[in-house]
Amino acid sequence: MKHNILVCDDGVLQSQLLANYVSNAIIINDDDWRSEFLPAKVANSYDEAVSWLEEYQPYAGLYILDIDLDQGQSKNGLALAEKVRQLDKAAQIVFVTTHDEMAVLTYERRIQTLDYIVKQADTAKMQARINETLDLAYRRFELERLAQSQTYCYKVGHREHKENIERVIALRTTSVSHKLELTTVTGTHQFFSSLKKEEKDNDFWLRISQSCLVNPNHIQAVCDAIGWES
Fold first, then answer.
1. In Å, what is the CA distance from 159 to each residue of 151, 153, 182, 188, 191?
2. Phi then psi dihedrals of residue 208, to 5 deg
3. pTM for this model (two decimals)
């Protein structure tokens, strides 16, 4: 999966300069990053950025945001970051600003950020800083991908639950249509879905009957029809 990059700064020249730094960083690290990142998109306002988010609905994007968006408290960079979090749950957010003391505001608003970059006139130093940030984002996305590959997710109502795959034992149908029962090392959990969908979305499952999927890592013995173990 390629990750979208959105740069948002209310200065047209500044936003394009930031996008150029990003493009240069990707070119420099061609072997690793070209397969990971899409070309940067540029927005110059809160509304433009949100419109793009709502139209394309990116997942696990990288967002480089000017914390000083000059559009009032309701549509500044902090408000945009909070909106990004609502629309892209796996977002990695980077703030850029001319005032490093504003970093404390991100903690007060409890906005989890990947990095915080102070704008500077030295283009070589700024390029190096963006290179470091994209490298950090690349490694963070890799870690998230690894974690997801080892995690089984299911929903109970609107709430998402996650279980380490090694703790998942079996999934079977129940007497209630489309309600499944998940067995883990700590107990059982019920949620609405179908075995067909769960098997398609999670390749670790092994189907042993029309009504049951199992995690092969928990199989200790296999019996034939008359009870002989193999």
1. 16, 10, 16, 16, 11
2. -110, -10
3. 0.69
Reference 130, options 226, 13, 27, 12; nearest CA is 27
In sequence order, the β-bridge partners of residue 181 are 172, 190
Domains assigned to the chain: 5-149 (3.40.50.2300), 152-218 (2.40.50.1020)
Could you give phi then psi for residue 91, rounded to 5 degrees? -65, 145
- Which residue is listed with tokens 């997942």? 59
For the four alpha carbons of 68, 141, 86 and 26, in that order, the dihedral sign comes to positive
Query: pLDDT, tens digit, for every residue of 122-175?
Result: 999 999 999 999 999 988 888 887 777 788 989 888 888 889 888 999 999 999
User: For the chain, how far is it from start to end, CA to CA, in angstroms?
Assistant: 41
Q: Which of 186, 184, 187, 179 shows the shortest CA–CA distance to 156?
A: 179
